[in-house]
């Protein structure tokens, strides 16, 4: 715990001394970028055409709703955030933004983004956006995160919604292809977060968050990570067979999938944390490249 | 006239300036966000009324 961390009761009553940059930090911009990217992928591969202005509004809505959910997550988790090195520098534990202000900020942005999505695009996309936000806030943050080591497995569904939302923004429906894109991110999430949880195990232990490495140990976590990467491999290839990915995607997803499995094997065999750190970094690149190939193929045609 | 010392609030000019600067930044950001929201609603309405939705 850092010296600059303030007690929750102080954070709650303190007047806001945060800058615009602190409010931006509440929106978890790094998480937002991957969420937006996967949402764009859903929009690009969906059959049909969307007016560029409406496409931009859909992207904005996905970004705002993602950031808003992040702000509400920071409001709820301010006590454990203050205990973990990774999160202690967030605006609420630092005393820069009062907790209730972060909550209001998140709630208002959620309402604005969902309403705008409904009015500008369609209400299926808006409903999915609301569902994703609700899932992240109520199911993951408030219910699962502090109760079960399966927190990020079930809670991971929240982060898997964006391509489905992007798809629905264009088509106004949910299809097998958009469910496959959802499943792809759903099965990618556990190995991604468990890789982080392995080298941040002490942080989670200290905060009392029952991540799998804390509860079941590193060996079991590494085994589970390998299982998920093995499930992910055929799933990541399937967009080719559904007609939303081309030959480049088939080759790219196969190579990336093999590399992901190879890293999971390395993590399983290793006794130090270096391979887990490598796997965490690669997992971000993996998803980014997979979606980039999908987007690239569709834009190139 | 009283000999009692002045116990009223002491203005800390440096701190005030800093707080005001931050508040002004937030106010301007809020203004920009509201203006952007108005523009978005207007443009979306024009596009939708012009039949430029999804196809």
UniProtKB/TrEMBL annotation, chain A:
Annotated keywords: Cell membrane, Heme biosynthesis, Membrane, Transferase, Transmembrane, Transmembrane helix
Topology versus the membrane: Multi-pass membrane protein
Cell compartment(s), UniProt: Cell membrane
Gene3D superfamilies: UbiA prenyltransferase
CDD domains for the chain: PT_UbiA_Cox10
UniProt function note: Converts heme B (protoheme IX) to heme O by substitution of the vinyl group on carbon 2 of heme B porphyrin ring with a hydroxyethyl farnesyl side group.
Other remarks on this protein: Carbon 2 of the heme B porphyrin ring is defined according to the Fischer nomenclature.
Name of the protein in question: Protoheme IX farnesyltransferase
Originating species: Niveispirillum lacus
Name of the gene encoding the protein in the UniProt record: ctaB
